[in-house]
Amino acid sequence: MLSKIVRRTNDMKLKHKLVISYVLVVMIPVLIIGVGVTYYFRQQAMDQAIQQAENNVERIKNQTMTLLRVPMDISNLLLFNSEIKEIANTKFANMLELTQSYHSFTLFNDYLQQYRELYGIRFFSFNSTLVNNYEFIPVDTQIESASWFKKAMESTSIGWFYIPNSEDYPADTLSLVRGVQFPEYQSRGVLMVLINRDELNNMLSQEPFNTMIVDSQGYIVAAKDTKLVGSTFESLNMGVDLRSQKKGLIEANVYDEPSNIIVDEMTPSSSMNGFQIVSIFSKESIVSNAKEISLIGMLFIILVLFVAMALVYVISLLTTNRLLRLSRQLNRLALGDLKVVSQVDGNDEIGQLSRQFNHMVSSINGLMEQVVETSEQNNRLAIAQKEIKLKMMASQINPHFLFNALESIRMKAHIKGEAEIANIVRLLGKLIRKNLEIGSGKTTIKAEMEMVHSYLQIQKFRYEDRLDFELSIQKGIEKEHIPPLIIQPLVENAIVHGLENQEEEVRVEVTIYEENDLVHFTVQDNGAGIRPERLKEVITSITGPDEQENSRIGLRNVHQRLTLSYGEEHGLIISSKPGKGTKIDFTVPKGGSK
């Protein structure tokens, strides 16, 4: 028999032997012990929770009785107060007399200032000459029909009721209510002392379980969850009838969760009714500690499993460790690290994969260098083409402008003196020189605006009163670098097209300012403007990939240089209204680079 067992054992695979040994020696005993320990601690935790809940309920009961002693003592003092008696039974002839009486009565407010347990004090009287000031309230049919009012009038004992809000007497809290007799006047009334609901709720706020205080009508007057205050216990649909359960432990499903409910009663002295203190806790929350112990047991099982299987996994760990190292190096390569080198040694399959990985990384690096070199060559070629086109544009002189300017100078020389002619000739020479000196580098805002100013002075000389201009530059940005010949074409466009079919004076304004690390440029005029359909054509001609015949080559050149240097978001923005003028905006990053 023993030899058969040994033979069958020898025929089994090693992993099967280890699994059977693990189940028989480790898993079954540990599971049996774990189940027994879990049940024991679960029962202990449940018993302790019930005892704790009962102690908490008893403590809350004592604290509540202490808190309710304050409104009871206050009501005893007010029961025979002469000022209340006088106001409640005096037939006031007019409002002035009533107002003076109310103004001189400060007793209620004094008590409220002294005791934080109180929320308000009110006296309900059948005196029809009174006016509701939220302290003395004349009884109407609605008040007289309220259940708390009827019970107070029928008994000399103290009543405890949850009073909901009303327009005539805001409450929404637990209140002491008692009837007051005035034998000498053969009259009566009802005294109400409202309790501060925050003081009640604060007693329950630190409770570990869901605890609440319920009055004899079923209203929740205080709770750990303050949202429940004012609702009835029946509306919570917990499946428990408190009226049939005076005191003790109830097991019930609360919101489909097995729970324990501790109920206790409390009736203050000289009171017609009392309260029930209810503490609810789910069994699941209590046995969570026992589950933690179970989890510890499971961790112990896993630990034993790892110890028992250690010898089996030695070889696999050595192998998987090398594979993990190679996997991490592959992840680094996938994230873009082309400097990674695999250092996994060995002549087995993993070692061969490591050497092939290093060869692959070397090949990728070579290909990347070729791609970068080719890309740089293409970029240099594109930039060179743009610079050639820019130089060609900058070297062009509008012959009409030059001839018209010289003709104007000649006419002025004929009519006026030499000083003005000399100035215009100087400006013209300076402008021509600046245009011819334009290269592929950058210039400053100050230098560019000097050329624009010279250009505008010459045009002013030419058009006289038909042209006016204004240049505005924010201080501190004059030395910012921008591409050359970037503003003058926009000003030229404003003058040429602004004066088109325009008899009135045309004003050209150039504004430059800094905001949010951007230098903003605006060139606007009040000339003829551009029709919407024509404006679409202009925008298409300057932003399209190909130059169109008769397109505005100056605006297109400026737009393409801006987008090439700084990006599409820094290109020209053109807006215009016929008869109102045209406005062109663009921005340049501060510092002159994208």
TrEMBL record:
The keyword Nucleus does not apply. InterPro entries: Bact_2-comp_sensor_kinase (IPR050640), HAMP_dom (IPR003660), HATPase_C_sf (IPR036890), HATPase_dom (IPR003594), Sig_transdc_His_kin_internal (IPR010559). It is found in: Cell membrane. Keywords: ATP-binding, Cell membrane, Coiled coil, Kinase, Membrane, Nucleotide-binding, Phosphoprotein, Transferase, Transmembrane, Transmembrane helix, Two-component regulatory system. It is a multi-pass membrane protein. GO terms for molecular function: kinase activity. It comes from the Bacteria. Residues 317-369 form the HAMP domain. Its main location: membrane. The chain crosses the membrane at residues 20-41, 295-318. The keyword Transit peptide does not apply. Residues 43-70 form a coiled coil. SUPFAM superfamilies: ATPase domain of HSP90 chaperone/DNA topoisomerase II/histidine kinase, HAMP domain-like. PANTHER family: SENSOR HISTIDINE KINASE YPDA, SENSOR PROTEIN KINASE HPTS. This is Sensor histidine kinase. It comes from Paenibacillus gallinarum.
